[in-house]
C-alpha cells in the first residue's frame, strides 16, 4: 500500500511539499525519479515543516480550516435557500465549493456574465462535463477564499440576477 499526500493546498502552495508512506525500497525509487523531474525544497524548509508537523501545528491548522469551511458552507447554503430557492444545491461534503443547478432553461454563461458585472464571480459548470453538448444549467460556486461577510451579499446579488433572467424567459 502507498499513501501520498500534499501540504500544498492546506498550507504552502509555493513550497511544493508532499509526503509518501511506502515500503523503503519504493521510497528509494521515488527519490531517484524525483531528482530527474523537479527540484526539491531546501533541507531547511523540509526540516522546518518536519518540526511544524511533529509539534502538532498542522493538525491544529487543519481543524481551524475545517471549522472555517463548515461555517462558510453553512452560510452559502443558507444564503442560497434565502436568495435563490429556485435552484437545486448539491450538499457540500468537504471542500470549498458546491454545485448549483439553475432552473430549467437558464444558461450559466449569461448568469456568469451579468453577475460578474455586479462583482460576483461564478464558474459555469459546462467545462466539467464530458457529454456533448454539456448541460448549461450547472455552476460551481466556490467559497473557500471568500470572506464570511461577503457571502450573504454576493449570493443576494446572484439571486437577484437569477430572478432577472427568469423574468426574461418565455
UniProtKB/TrEMBL annotation:
<dbReference type="InterPro" id="IPR004839">
    <property type="entry name" value="Aminotransferase_I/II_large"/>
</dbReference>
<keyword id="KW-0032">Aminotransferase</keyword>
<dbReference type="GO" id="GO:0030170">
    <property type="term" value="F:pyridoxal phosphate binding"/>
</dbReference>
<keyword id="KW-0808">Transferase</keyword>
<dbReference type="InterPro" id="IPR051446">
    <property type="entry name" value="HTH_trans_reg/aminotransferase"/>
</dbReference>
<dbReference type="InterPro" id="IPR015421">
    <property type="entry name" value="PyrdxlP-dep_Trfase_major"/>
</dbReference>
<dbReference type="InterPro" id="IPR015422">
    <property type="entry name" value="PyrdxlP-dep_Trfase_small"/>
</dbReference>
<dbReference type="InterPro" id="IPR015424">
    <property type="entry name" value="PyrdxlP-dep_Trfase"/>
</dbReference>
<dbReference type="Pfam" id="PF00155">
    <property type="entry name" value="Aminotran_1_2"/>
</dbReference>
<dbReference type="GO" id="GO:0047536">
    <property type="term" value="F:2-aminoadipate transaminase activity"/>
</dbReference>
<feature type="domain" description="Aminotransferase class I/classII large">
    <location>
        <begin position="2"/>
        <end position="145"/>
    </location>
</feature>
<protein>
    <submittedName>
        <fullName>2-aminoadipate transaminase</fullName>
        <ecNumber>2.6.1.39</ecNumber>
    </submittedName>
</protein>
Amino acid at each position: 500500500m502507498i499513501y501520498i499526500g500534499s501540504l500544498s493546498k492546506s498550507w504552502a502552495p509555493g513550497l511544493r511539499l508532499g509526503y509518501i508512506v511506502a515500503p523503503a525500497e519504493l521510497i528509494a525509487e521515488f527519490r531517484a525519479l524525483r531528482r530527474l523531474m523537479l527540484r526539491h525544497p531546501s533541507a531547511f524548509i523540509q526540516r522546518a515543516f518536519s518540526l511544524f508537523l511533529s509539534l502538532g501545528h498542522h493538525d491544529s491548522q487543519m481543524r481551524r480550516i475545517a471549522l472555517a469551511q463548515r461555517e462558510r458552507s453553512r452560510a452559502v447554503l443558507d444564503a442560497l435557500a434565502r436568495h435563490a430557492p429556485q435552484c437545486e444545491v448539491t450538499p457540500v461534503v468537504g471542500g470549498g465549493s458546491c454545485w448549483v443547478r439553475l432552473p430549467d432553461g437558464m444558461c450559466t454563461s449569461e448568469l456568469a456574465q451579468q453577475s460578474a458585472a455586479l462583482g460576483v464571480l461564478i464558474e459555469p459548470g459546462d467545462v466539467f462535463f464530458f457529454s456533448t453538448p454539456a448541460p448549461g444549467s450547472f455552476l460551481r460556486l466556490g467559497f473557500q477564499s471568500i470572506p464570511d461577510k461577503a457571502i450573504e451579499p454576493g449570493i443576494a446579488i446572484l439571486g437577484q440576477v437569477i430572478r432577472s433572467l427568469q423574468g426574461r424567459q418565455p
